[in-house]
Design brief:
It contains twelve helices and seven strands.
């Protein structure tokens, strides 16, 4: 067992005041891509007032970049001010380490939903569809009756993970590596727009309407909403179809998937090339084997 796992109860009590055990969020992990079982994993909320405090916490957990196979299950609630004052390498390292556990946790949740769908869609039909199955269909914007094979296939196509490489790359691209006003004030890492009351972007030119971006309660909510957008948005049909084909081949390729995300930006193909370069230049295309570490919170 890693030293930080053995020391975790003491770290929670006092050595690392940034971590608060009282608000631990239980995220039940599900089947890994290999099909093997994954035990329940707790995410530990992490609050950092400064980049120095964030770096100190990561150091205490022996959490470096690039990470080892096991990633400490730390859920940073919001980014600290001051990342823009760091040198580029240190800023990137802190940002990527902060976001990776959130991406892994979001994918664990989706795997649990997908495992349920695979079991239930084979065993139920018609009036016997369970309420949870109907709720998942609504959540993933599948309106057609599940008696139709096409609707069931579409639901499975939508309920699937997004490679951590894409999550981290788009978060970095859209938030300026965690330094944008919308990331710092609204926990919006992906530039997601909204019609509701939220933070407002300044108009690009006189006479143009003001565009609003969504505000989130924490970073985890931003990551989950971004993944949901890719899974249900009309602009990402090609993304989901390619992901389905890659699933059949047994491995997702984030670089190939990035080519399908031209609809995310008005820059289109230029945007996707920049996204691919960000993935390659920062070594993000080799994160698929990583998983959240299990921790024992017993005294």
């Amino acid at each position: 067992m890693n030293d930080w796992k053995r020391q975790l109860p003491a770290l929670i009590i006092g050595a690392i005041p940034l971590c608060t055990a009282a608000a631990i969020i239980l995220a039940v992990a599900l089947t890994a891509r290999s099909g093997g079982p994954v035990h329940p994993i707790s995410l530990l909320p992490l609050h950092a007032r400064s980049p120095a405090q964030l770096a100190a916490t990561f150091k205490a957990y022996q959490y470096n970049w690039p990470p080892a196979a096991e990633v400490p299950p730390l859920a940073l609630t919001r980014l600290p001010d001051g990342l823009n004052e760091l040198d580029p390498d240190r800023k990137k390292s802190l940002f990527l380490r902060a976001l990776l556990p959130l991406a892994l946790a979001a994918n664990n949740r989706i795997r649990r939903e997908r495992a349920y769908l695979l079991r239930t869609l084979n065993d139920a039909h018609g009036d016997a569809w369970p309420n949870r199955l109907k709720q998942l269909a609504r959540a993933y914007d599948v309106d057609d009756p599940l008696d139709q094979a096409a609707a069931r296939a579409d639901l499975l196509r939508r309920c699937d993970v997004v490679p951590p490489a894409l999550v981290l790359a788009q978060a970095a691209k859209e938030s300026g590596w965690g330094t944008s006003r919308f990331a710092l004030q609204g926990n919006n890492l992906f530039g997601v727009h909204t019609w509701d009351q939220a933070l407002a972007l300044k108009a690009r030119a006189p006479g143009k309407r003001v565009v609003k971006v969504r505000a989130y309660p924490d970073l985890r909510a931003s990551v989950r909403d971004y993944i949901h957008n890719l899974n249900v948005g009309h602009a990402y049909v090609a993304f989901r179809k390619l992901r389905e084909r890659q699933n059949r081949q047994g491995r997702m390729d984030p670089l190939a998937l990035a080519r399908t995300l031209g609809g995310y930006s008005t820059l289109g193909e230029i945007y996707t090339r920049r996204l691919q370069n960000l993935i390659k230049n920062n070594g993000l295309d080799d994160l698929e084997s990583l998983h959240l570490a299990e921790i024992d919170l017993r005294p």
